[in-house]
Design a protein that fits this description.
With 64 residues, the protein is mainly α. It contains two helices and no strands. The radius of gyration is 14 Å and the shape is elongated. It starts with a helix and ends in an 11-residue tail after the last helix.
């Protein structure tokens, strides 16, 4: 597996976890818990987007 594939797979896992957290937030009855889950999901979404952009290009590889 190439480095780009590893970054892509990691980003995909993060997006899936964020989706799970969003679904859990929708089911939460406690407003504070709902907000906490939504915030955690938002942070994961941002991190998954950063997987490619912080490496310098869309493949996640640093062009040096």
């Amino acid at each position: 597996m190439s480095l780009a594939d590893e970054f892509s797979a990691r980003a995909q896992q993060m997006r899936q976890k964020a989706d799970q957290l969003e679904q859990a937030a929708e089911r939460a009855t406690d407003p504070a818990e709902r907000q906490r889950l939504k915030e955690k999901a938002r942070r994961l979404q941002e991190q998954s987007k950063d997987q490619g952009t912080t490496r310098g290009d869309s493949t996640g590889i640093d062009p040096m």
